[in-house]
Amino acid sequence: MDSIPGVDLDQQGREVSVRRGGWVFLLMFVIAGRAAAGELTALEQLGKRLFFDANLSSPAGQSCASCHSPETGFTGPVSATNQKTAVYQGAAPSRFGNRKPPSAAYASFSPKLGYEAADETYVGGQFWDGRALNLVEQAKGPFLNPLEMNNADAAEVVRKVQAADYWPLFVQNFEAELKTADMDAAFEMIARAIAAYEASSEVNSFSSKYDAYLAGKAELTVQEKRGLDLYVGKANCAACHPNDRGADGSPPLFTDFTYDNVGAPANPRNPFYQQTASVNPEGAKYRDLGIGGVLKQPDHYGKFKVPTLRNIDKRPSPDFVKSYLHNGTFKNLKEVVHFYNSRDQLPSEFADPDVLDNVNREELGKLGLTPAEEDDVVVFLTTLSDGYWNPASAAPPGPVAGPSPSGNPLVGDRFYGAGEVARVRRFHPRPPPVASEDRPPVR
């Protein structure tokens, strides 16, 4: 294993100095435990710097935020791309993955991937297909994926972080561990820091109008209330996207973290179909098998992780286009709600999905909503965008799983469990109203 060059540690594991490029950078020991801006811990600050660093790809130019921007709820930030293909180009020119970027917000609450026998479904994990068991493993993936950030190995990523101006902050967070760390261990630290930022209150603020409504700090409009009633009733959205607080008072996450085949029409504009045979040997015949492809289980072909609906409409301007479902085939919420409502009644309106088997025909596809009711549901969904209010101005709506006391995101169940927030509701009675193959895909 490669060692970590350029770090001098004394016998207690404390850094004496950091040498980089002929310059000596004295470590600043006065970094506060929480930054004034955003109240981030030192580890979360480090994770944020890593998350937004566009020099960590090969070639340079792509960061985590290139596909997961806060302005859009930590998903795709380019309106033109969302409108056309919905799939983002990697750091290497002309390389594309096969899915739209999922939201990084609230992903930290997903439990470790497991199987719920009572519901006959997998729950948790990361990415659309659950191939990463937890958030730390997820954070490693894009760095080494040739269709994303395209680094050759972990050592290449570590060397780039060593060359960054925030390397002293990295050492401050991991000084004891760096004393004996090799490149793989340092890469793990990078992933842990990113996971810590993705689990921070900056990424998961619970600050939507709906949160304010639950806290008694805002009122829904008449149309928003109608949409809420439909959401938990006739439209059956809450079956997979629960909107009620947990038994402990924790705020809703608007996902049960399960996997489902909703019959999403194939996206013919997906550039993955045109990738070279070395990337996509099936060409135009490619079918995305979802978690079933990862697990080699035909019963789960075509199933993808149920996303959170938080920030589903968050965008920087009214004319900004977002894309929806795992392949980005729909371009606005009205299209999505109409599809869920009428997929089985008006099949000629929609192209076939990649996998016709396993399509969920029990909970969606023939909801019987009128066009006006579809609009009401859409309006309610717009209340789920963060940034409406500051939860710190009032008592919090309830506990959410927090970081471990040690500050180490690998300790406890913060990223490996958090099962108490995953309330599986598929095939359960509706809640009452309130108010690929071995080749890893890019996303």
TrEMBL record:
Residues 424-443 are annotated as: Disordered. GO terms for molecular function: cytochrome-c peroxidase activity; electron transfer activity; heme binding; metal ion binding. This is Cytochrome c peroxidase. It comes from the Bacteria. Coiled coil: none annotated. The keyword Metal-binding applies. Residues 42-194, 222-385 form the Cytochrome c domain. Keywords: Heme, Iron, Metal-binding, Oxidoreductase, Peroxidase, Signal. It is found in: Cell envelope. One of its GO terms (cellular component) is cell envelope. It holds the Pfam family CCP_MauG.
